[in-house]
Every structure is written in C-alpha cells, then in structure tokens.
Write a structure and sequence with these properties.
Shape: elongated
Order of helices and strands: HEEEHEHEHHHHHEEHHEHEEEHEHEHH
Largest sheet: 5 strands, mixed
Number of strands: 13
Distance between the termini: 58 Å
Oligomer: single chain
Number of domains: 3
CATH architecture of the largest domain: 2-Layer Sandwich
Helix content: 25-40%
Mean pLDDT: 82
Strand content: 15-25%
Length: 407
C-alpha cells in the first residue's frame, strides 16, 4: 500500500466527494455529497430536482459536510457540470478554505489522456471498464474512480498537494528564455486590430496572423495549455522574434495579412485560396465605399471595391475631405477611366483585396458606414454623398463602431 493510500485510509482523514450538475437554464440541480473518514463512507446527501423543490435543509447538510473538510489536510474532490458555481453559490463561507481536486481532469492528466477524453475513456484507463462514468453525479462510478486515482497517484509517489496541482503543473509553458522577447513584452501589445509576424532565429517567417484584438490573440500562443496543437507546438519550438503592425480596422488587418502571406510565404501558415470574383454578395453596379477608423490620429480610411475588380484604400483627414481626389477616384471607379494619378495615402490591394472586402462587407454590412456608387449618378452628386458619409462616420465613436463592425 502506498503512502497516499495509507493517508486516505487513516482515521480522521476526511475526503468529501462532491458531484454537481447545475442547470441554470432549467433551474434544476443534482448534487451528491459523500463524506469519507479513513476511507469509510460516513454520510451521504443527495439533491435532485428543480431549485424550488429541493429541501433547503439539504443545502445546509451539504454545507455542514463541506465545513468538516474545510481545513488541511482534508480534501474536497469534485466532478460534474458547473461544480464551481455550486461552490460559489452554496459553499461561499468555506470556499476559500477547501483543498479542491478536480477528479475527471486529474484522472485524465494522471493517465496521460487527451483533454477531450470521454468518461468511458477514463474508466477504461483505470481498469474499471465494468462501470461507465455516468453524467449523473448520483452514479456510484465516481467513488470507484476516486480510489483508482488515489492508487495510481500513490504508485507515482505523489502527495495530496501534488495530486491537486497536477493538472496545472502538467500544462506546457512557453520557453521565454529561448525567445528574444520576454513575457512582460506581451503585456505591451495593444488591444487593437493588427497583423503579427513570428520569425525564427534565422529571421525566416514562421507565421503571419491577424486579429481584431492583438493583445488577446498573440497572448493566446503563450498561455499554459495541457496539450499543444501541432501548429502551436511548431511555433513555440521555433519562434525567436515577434513583430506586429497596428491597423485601424479588422478589414485593414485582413488585407495586410493576405499581402504579408503572399510576400513572406510563412512556413506554418495554411495558405488560403482567395479567388477573385467568387463572393456571392456583390453590388448590382458601380462600386462600394466603406468608411472605417484609421490607426492615424484625426484620419479616416475609405475602402473602395467594385467595378474595377480591385480594392483601393484612401486615408484622408476627417474634417477636410479632398474634393478633387474624390472626384478623380469616382471617375476612375465608375466611368472606367484608364488611369488614376494616385495619392500619397492611396493603397491598391488588387483583385484578391476586392474579394476580401466583399466577404467582409457581406458579413458586417449592417454595422458599417457604406454607400453604393452607381454608374448612372453624376460625379458631383456621388462626391457629395461620399463627403456626407465621411462626415457621419467622423462624428461616430470610432472604437464603438469598430466593435460593432468586427462581427
């Protein structure tokens, strides 16, 4: 018998096996609380039914059992759906004093099972295949699983504290000592739209990605996680440096990401196939102009895509829309002029960019400021509509609009 098993079977050592299924949507609750002392069952309290039909005394009974294990070395072993909510709502007085062991999660890690392993997989891993861990916390299966886990952990020489922390300790951590940036640097990345580029020690590009929230997206690559997906493992093993470029909107980030992928050919990216003209959502005639925030102060970004089968982005000052520039652009887009003299802040995203714009516009059109530039409308009238749309967007809270348009 291992030291862990001996401790579990010592008189005075208490374990509370607490299973919960709390369904707030249907106001239902199922709970089973079993108190063991020295490995022997002492008390058993069950709750099953709608909240309003459960005897309040049963909740008090469970709370009293929890109070009896609310100090070390005693342990509370939990399982089921929303057990955290039950602890927070009904055991708040002792919640912070409990040593809590998540039984299914610990059992998976201890048996080296994947995070998505089913209850039947867990039962089989512990040679208790004659039972199937059931959805209901009232099932006796969990008691068998508890003692099987204690036996397996004891054979590995684990203490109770080590067993409790096992799921967290087993999570893979990024090796910041191998990177040119530290964990603190991630905290400096803004929660804004943009594109990020990850490189290896030879400065070869590993991966290019975009996000409406760079801080959250980039940070997700370096969180502790039990089992790394293949792509994430490849990036963590090879990454050396990280850079990013801010954008004014998710649409601009999508366009820039596509261009970087084409130009840099990152080795980890699964190359997307963007076929110009494949979008199902297209204007009947003319072009579309979408007004979105800019990363530059007191500026706004205009995205044009339509009859020329290419996307153009024009950055302008919000309080002084350039009439002559807008007139030339409308003539180029709607009257099929062969040339356009350009503008210092004009970006041509090409045919693939037009397809990206169409897809984004079709997904977010109800939350965007946009107008359709018809072929049969006089240029002066079209420019007046453009300036009106620009003025409306300039008076809108750009951050709030972006959250809406991000979809």
């Amino acid at each position: 018998m291992t030291d862990l098993e001996k401790q579990a079977l010592t008189d005075g050592f208490r374990v509370l096996l607490l299973g919960c299924v709390v369904d707030a949507g249907q106001d239902a609750i199922v709970v089973r609380a079993q108190l063991f002392d020295g490995g022997r069952p002492r008390e058993d309290v069950n709750l099953d039914g709608p909240f309003w039909e459960v005897d309040p005394g049963a909740f008090r009974d469970v709370s009293e059992l929890a109070a009896r294990v609310a100090s070390p070395p005693h342990v509370t072993v939990v399982y089921g759906r929303n057990w955290r909510r039950f602890l927070d709502d009904h055991l708040a007085d002792v919640r912070d004093d409990l040593l809590v062991l998540d039984l299914p999660r610990t059992a998976r890690v201890l048996a080296d099972l994947a995070p998505g392993a089913t209850d039947s997989d867990i039962a089989g891993a512990y040679n208790i295949a004659h039972i199937v861990v059931a959805d209901s916390p009232l099932s006796p299966s969990y008691e068998d699983l508890l003692w099987a886990v204690i036996e397996a952990a004891g054979k590995r020489g684990l203490s109770w504290q080590e067993l409790i922390s096992l799921p967290d300790d087993a999570r893979s951590q990024p090796r910041f000592e191998d990177y040119e940036f530290g964990e603190a640097a991630l905290g400096g990345i803004p929660s804004a739209p943009g594109v990020y580029i990850m490189r290896d020690a030879n400065l070869d590009v590993l991966y290019v990605g975009k996000s409406a929230d760079l801080a959250s997206r980039v940070g997700s690559y370096f969180r502790r996680i039990a089992r790394l997906p293949a792509k994430l493992e490849c990036i963590r093993d090879r990454i050396s440096s990280l850079e990013y470029e801010l954008c004014g909107s998710e649409l601009e980030a999508l366009l820039l990401e596509n261009r970087f992928i084409d130009e840099l050919a990152p080795v980890v990216n699964v190359q997307r196939s963007i076929v110009p003209g494949s979008s199902r959502y297209r204007p009947k005639a003319g072009a579309i102009m979408v007004v979105l925030p800019s990363v530059a102060r007191r500026r706004i970004e205009l995205f044009f895509f339509g009859s020329r089968e290419r996307a153009l982005q024009l950055r302008i000052v919000t309080n002084r829309p350039p009439t002559a520039v807008l007139e030339r652009l409308v003539l180029y887009l709607c009257e099929e002029r062969k040339g356009y003299r350009g503008h210092p802040h004009l970006t041509d995203w090409g045919a693939e960019g037009a397809e990206i714009c169409y897809r984004y516009w079709s997904r977010c059109r109800d939350a965007l400021d946009w107008i359709e530039l018809g072929l049969d409308r006089p240029v002066a009238e079209t420019v007046a509509l453009l300036k009106q749309a620009i003025g409306t967007a300039a008076r809108t809270d750009a951050a709030a609009e972006f959250r809406l348009s991000a979809g």
